[in-house]
Each structure stands twice: as C-alpha cells, then as structure tokens.
Amino acid sequence: MRQRQFFTSDLSVNEFLLVKEVGFHPVGLVLGSSIFHIGNQWVNAKANCEMQQLTQAMYLSRELAMARMEEEADSLGADGIVGVKLEVTQHAWGSNVIEFVAIGTAVKNDQGHNWRAPNGKPFQSDLSGQDFWTLLRAGYRPLGFVMGNCVYHVGELGFFQKLTTPAQGEMKNYTEGLYDARELAMERMQTEATDLGAEGIVGVVIDQSNHSWGNNVIEFSAVGTAVAPISRDHKIPVPQLILTVND
User: What pTM does this model have?
Assistant: First the structure.
C-alpha cells in the first residue's frame, strides 16, 4: 500500500488547485531565518553617499534567510519554492537587531522533469499561485527570486542652503540622493537576474525603510522573480469574467 504524502502549505485553496493543475504538487512549507546585528557607520552629515557597510549587512542577512529556506526545500527534494515572502522584524533586543524571515511553499513537478534553477538548487519565486499558473501557461518559467538593496545617507542642508531654499520648490539634494539609492538597488537586482540567464523580471516591488537609523538614512530594496522562456509560442490564457454573488 502506497504511503499517503502529507504536506503543509501557505497557499490558499485557489492557489493550491492552480499549482496542481499546472503540474506541480506542494511538498512542504519551508522557512529560513536570520537575526542580524546591524552596526554603525559614520559619514559626513552633509554628504549624499551610500553607506556600503550597512548595505552589505542588510543584504547578507536577507541572503542567509533565503539560503536556509532553499536548503529546507532542497532536503525535501523540491524543484522550487512558490509564494516566497521576505519579511523584516525588529524585536525588543535592541534597535540595531533585525530578523529577516523567508517563507514559501516547496513544490515538485508531477512528471519528474528538472525545473531547478541553473545552479542546481530549487528555483524561488514570490509569485502567487495564480501568477505562477499564468506564467507557465504562457510559456515562461521562474528562475529565481532576485533582489538588490542600498542603504543611503541623504545629506543635511547647511545653514546657507537652508537660507537660499525657496518656500516652494524642489529640494534637489534629497531628490538626487533618493534617486541614486533606488537606481543602485534596481541595478543590483537586475545583475542577479542577468547572472541567472533570465530574460526579465516580473512582479518587482520596491520598498523603502528607515529602520532605526534616523531620518537621513534610508534603505531601498528591490525584489522580483527572474523569468525565462520555455516555449516559442507565448499564448496567453484568455481572462474569464467571474461575478461573485453575495448573500
């Protein structure tokens, strides 16, 4: 008698059924965590510049959480992880202590085909079950969850700059600083996707956080799913109108 396979999943009912319909089945809920102490870095208070030590620390802490989630999926023999969520939490241990948690549902192909990423590890995707179904039906596949970040110090205006700043007008110092920070985060995410051999990135989300560094230090993070074609015919499923009848 074949032993029944038991699994856990954070997929909704609709997501679970769509993932099954496209030829995958969940094998377990996987999680990775990293509690990281973020140190300090001193910069010129009036300078616009990246705080590279903080950037690297924040990136490494995310990478550790993602790698541990990937290891759990690998131990289950999964082909990939769908519905990845990457969350940050500040506990009561100190203002510079941050926990990153990565969580998702590990899935395996029903036909035994190799769907792993080019590095031989399970692919990662933050797409929902519905988006995962649509992507595969349209002839594309996820290669990996890619990200980039930048911790940036926006210089304070000097005394004379404040005097000459118009009552209404653009504050170019702030505009340029935040623009540069976003661009650095985006470029790093795109570099990760290029290294995977992706054609593009879908579902990109750009987030900004101050964490506990003060008003003039901000982090931008960019995340998304790198994708590549698996078919020349990208036939998009026709959307169907569904009317919900409420009681």
Answer: 0.83
